Amino acid sequence: MRTGRWVLVGLLVAALVGGGAYAYLGYVRKAQQTVTAQLLPGIAQPGADPASSDKAVGLVVATVEPADEGRPVHLQTRSGAGWESQAVAEQDADGNVEFLLERGGLDAGRSYRVVSLGDGDSAEATSPVLSGDEWGRPDFEDEFDRDTLGDQWLNRGEDYNVEGLRACSKGSGDAVAVGGGTLQLSVLLDPARADERCSPRNGKGDLIGSYRYRLNGHVMPNAHYFRYGVLAARIKFQKMQGQHASLWMQPAISESTTDSATGGAEIDVIEWFGEGTANGGLTTFIYKLSEDGPVKVGDFIADPDSFLTGQDDSWYDRYHVFSVEWTSQAYIFRIDGKETWRTSEGISHQPEYPILSLLSSDYELRKLPDPGDLPQTMHVDWVRFWEA
């Protein structure tokens, strides 16, 4: 009886241990990766010359969970009845990867998926299939392939604005031109006030100099706006400081002064302050509404030269595509498809419209004191938005 008891106990222990081991191994086998992926429209097109926006390349972005920094992820494209690998990228610390598509990658009939291969700890995971043409044609686009701006654009800010700290400059159609396939926005001297001098004050009321009056290129679409989606523009900036070039957005409808969800937000997709500016000269901001007024969120883009294509590239000699992906949860900013920053603050749920401008605010005028350096000009090759 004593021997039989120990045999029985031994069998019970073996069963329990074996069952636990099996449960543990089953848990390991069931540890799953997940891959979410999305396709973005043509938002990458660096280059020296104007070019058709239809030749801009799209992007597939994906997130793998759980994240495994440095682990390779594959972009596959459909080939007949199967799939073949088109590119490989490594996860960042958050499990994110980006794939620039080949030219023609947004054509109808192209299909993609993102695959994270399995290993000893996790099974292979595959994203849902993405269609290359899922964004379709833009809801708004302008290639500026004519000789005038046309009636689908309006000039903005056509008064000198002391309260807005632009006492010495105003928007004017005289600072706007179209030709050679681009929109040209300039800062130039105001010929109507050539014999006058402007003495602006800073926010504290202190005089900050004496300058010539200036005209600025400052335009917006005429009744074209969207809520959620992607806005992109291909831009070559001016070279010098003393003015800042911008692609930005303002709400078409505002129903609150304290909440961006209903009041909208100013979204500064990109600003360029000129060659030699500290921290690289490129910024991205949003202004979210609050009980205490608009709150500025954002900063200079870190290591901006990493978004250039090489040593011969620059923000004022070549074109680059600046974009924002706007969802109900986040703003995601990119240069030629590469993410620069994202935020979930101040999300607007109102329709917004894009603005293109080259503005000389009073605080900048000291950086371009010689009128002989004017005009300064930014060139916009094209602008598009797709509503989600």
Tell me what the structure shows:
- This protein has about 400 residues and is mainly beta.
- It has helices spanning about 1-30, 260-265, and strands spanning about 35-45, 55-65, 70-80, 80-90, 95-100, 110-115, 125, 130, 140, 155, 170, 175-180, 180-190, 215-220, 230-235, 245-250, 265-270, 280-290, 295-300, 320-325, 330-335, 340-345, 350-360, 375-385.
- The protein has a 16-stranded mixed β-sheet that branches. Strands 3, 4, 6, 7 and 8 form a 5-stranded antiparallel β-sheet that branches. A 3-stranded antiparallel β-sheet has the order 1-2-5, with no helix packed on it.
- The longest helix is centred in the N-terminal third of the chain and has 29 residues, at about 1-30.
- The radius of gyration is 27 Å and the shape is elongated.
- InterPro entries: Beta-glucanase-like (IPR000757), ConA-like_dom_sf (IPR013320).
Low-pLDDT segments, ≥5 res:
1-28
Query: Can you tell me the CATH class of the largest domain?
Result: Mainly Beta
Query: Helical stretch count?
Result: 2
Order of H and E elements: HEEEEEEEEEEEEEEEEHEEEEEEEE
* Reported CATH architecture of the largest domain: Sandwich
* Class based on secondary structure composition and strand pairing: mainly beta
Compute the CA-based radius of gyration: 27 Å
Number of strands: 24
Query: How confident is the prediction overall: mean pLDDT?
Result: 92
Here the CATH topology of the largest domain equals: Jelly Rolls
Residue share in helices?
under 10%
Span between N and C termini?
77 Å
Largest sheet: 16 strands, mixed
In one word, what is the shape? elongated
What number of domains?
2
